[in-house]
Amino acid sequence: MKHAGLIRLVATVVVIVFALGIWATGGKPDLGWLRFYSAAVLIATALLWLWETLLWKIRPAQHFRAVPRDVSGTWKGTLESLWKASETGTSPARMAAYLVVRQTASTVSVVLLTNESRSASSLGSVSTGLDTPTLDYMYLNRPDPRFENQSRMHHGSTQLDITGQPATRLRGRYWTDRNSRGELDFVERTKHKADDFEQAASLFKPSTANSRPARRSQPRLRDL
Question: Are 158 and 134 in contact (CB under 8 A)?
Fold first, then answer.
């Protein structure tokens, strides 16, 4: 929901509380109804906070077109650069990538993590007016020092189509100010939000209990 919608919500709550206060006093001109002002502000603030942080994520709200699709969490996927070396005409190998999305009803921030660099959004939004909702953001990429000789700091933009309700896939492409571009595809997700590449990778590792080999049962006589 955009800021204009939030303002309308606040105004509606305030008017309703004032109207109830006037009705409760018999509708007579009485400045005493102003005592409901603080209650109206408190209720409106509480409702806005609940909506901004929690209520917009619940399934009933997610079915409304005006509500942004919830894509928060850490996503696991791949990054494929379409840049080609002039000497060989080949592109870099596809690499593992993690997308960390922190989102409220009106804001979104994105961090893309690979084993070579970190990209943090400077401006982002989740579209709500299109047939296919998208996650769009502009970013600054900072390579790790060991990769600076082959990849300098740069700016770029990304557009990812959101599939599913709730979201199950983010897929799209990116462009940079170095005239390079590539594709991104994320198909696994956890609600935990990672701080770096190693932590993101650990979120998707199978647990020890699940990774133990199954115990083989003793062969039955009829199987011999």
Answer: no
